[in-house]
Amino acid sequence: MNAHALQPEDALRQDVATANRILERVGLSHAFGHASARIPGTNTFLMPTRRSPGLAEAASLLVIDTEGRIASGEGEPNSEFWIHARIYAARAEVGGVVHAHPPACVCLTQIGEPHRIVHNQAGIFAAGVPEYARIGLIRTRELGDLLASTLGSAVATMMRGHGITTAFPDVRAATVAACYLEESAALQLRMLSAAGGDATRLRTFSAAEAHELRDQVSGSVARRAWEYYAAVAEATPLGGARAG
Ligand SMILES: [Zn+2]
To answer: How far is the CA of 85 from the centre of ligand 1 (A)?
Structure first.
């Protein structure tokens, strides 16, 4: 579909639905997880109802505000909507938030290894990926605020034994970044395994090297990545990532 032919909010709804389906189709989440987008210039955001992200539809997205009130739409929001609400409240420049439960990221948190930059696409995380160490779901405003303060000014946080949250100027970038973060964590685990578990043997990118790679979710790189993941989401059946 050519999103540019749609009205701005319709196009944004389409992006949010696609973002959610990507999370499920590429295996970042199954029954749980969600992507949202701020309606530009407002304190409201588009978010799916309480279903798998793989079942998200543009027409049934809810509009929720940063205080957790449903402004429009039918149905119940996902119970962790406070992640989105309180990050949008804390960060005016954030236009897209993704929360998912990708397995390699969860593994890293549970072996006590911080995220390290070991390949080009992870350059966007050069400023660091703080860890939210408290286990359990984010189902209250207070926990949403705690997560937002842990995230700080970073673009992603890893949540111990739980998953990840990314926050970017738009939902496409937040989604592509979530894919990159899981790819990065999976590579890091493989490298650790190949190195006999010795993290000192990883040839982690230096801060200066990583800084050179910070444009991986902007411009033509981002368009190409989004185009790819959106096409995968369209071509893959529901649950396809689980079967693979
Ligand atoms: Zn969660």
So the answer is: 14
